[in-house]
Amino acid sequence: MNKLLIITALIVLFLVPSNVFALDEIKILNSTTKIDYPNSLTFNIKAESSTPITRVRLLYEVDKMTYAPVFAEAWPEFTREKAVSAIWTWDMRKGSLPPGATVTYRWIIENSLGKKLETPEEKLTFEDTRYKWQKVARDKVNIYWYQGNRSFADELLKASQDALSRLAQDTGATLENPVSFYIYANYKDLRGSLVAPEEWTGGVAYAGFNIISIGIAPSNLEWGKKAVAHELGHLVTHQITFSPYGADLPPWLDEGLAMHAEGQQSQEDRDALVKAIEIGRISTLRSLSSPFSADAEEAYYAYAQSQSVIEFLINKYSKDNINQLLLLLKDGNTMDEALIKIYGFDLNGLDEAWIEFMMADSLHDTAGETTVYNCVALTGLTDSHQLASDLLLINA
User: Fold this and answer.
1) 100 neighbors 144 (Cβ within 8 angstroms)
2) Whole-angstrom Cα distance, residue 148 to residue 129?
3) Of all helices (H) and strands (E), which one includes residue 41?
4) Tens of pLDDT along 161-183?
5) What fold is seen in the domain 26-126?
6) How is the chain split into domains, by residue range?
7) CATH for 134-395?
8) How many other CB atoms are found less than 10 A from the CB of residue 334?
9) Start-to-end C-alpha separation, the chain
10) Which H/E stretch holds residue 108?
């Protein structure tokens, strides 16, 4: 009799379908994502359980520079049944991502018996899939482009390496984390990659992501090389000073280092600054510690003066001093405190020392009188709109 019961039980066991749930089991049937660049990112999940599913949560984290890891949480709507389908769409009008941003996510699902299932972490890249991107890379710099030949991208990559070498040699500042440039073929394509672009936007710097989107036509390569070097200078500086204790960098320091990353200042720019000093139209560094003027000519002088001050500090003092200055600012020192510790003078003293240096240097000019150049002549531009597109990037 016992043998008969055992045989009967085994027969029943083998007849039970293999897909029958344990009492509290939850299964994931499907998990997908859909990118609609630049408008949205959609997450889909399908699951079933032996009892009704009561909670579905999406946890996600964006890969960017932060002081502490932060996961966001979304609660998609669904009908409480044994088989559910839940969808959550990230509307980029409420917080956009740059091309190439990485998102890590996982789902947490619970049923009416309290059973909880957490899916393994997955990663996705928020790519601008409208274009067929190509890539060249070297020493932590990635260049993505879709229009122009390989030599076009190689020239931009070389400009980035020259800028890194210049900064390392002259300031001791080096790139800590990889950076990526997304090179759109023109300003129109670039603006089409943004959710709500300004009409004058020439590029977007996503400092926390170490990503730059910029419009560079293959026919505008020379400007493009300067733009890549300039923005790389910003990212190097921001990586070094990133800290919960440090304050925002003053524009004269930030832009001065970025301008120096492009190359040495021209003699024409130096002559224009000397003339500005002579006629009393030069700004103080305290005034240049606030956002630069939107006026094209005023902006030109602000950028030129910032670069000149940086080159004065490089040529007059130890090149490692600027690196030490950035580290002191990272630790929470004010600009005056950091300057005094390293150079022995504050911002007012730096103004005086720089002006004295510029005027003394101008005495060595054997060409006679200097010429006053306006910003249009110096930059080769024809209107202030172009200057705004070329010099100003949105920092997202």
Assistant:
1) yes
2) 18
3) strand 40-49
4) 999 999 999 998 899 999 999 99
5) Immunoglobulin-like (2.60.40)
6) 26-126, 134-395
7) 3.40.30.160
8) 13
9) 78
10) strand 101-111
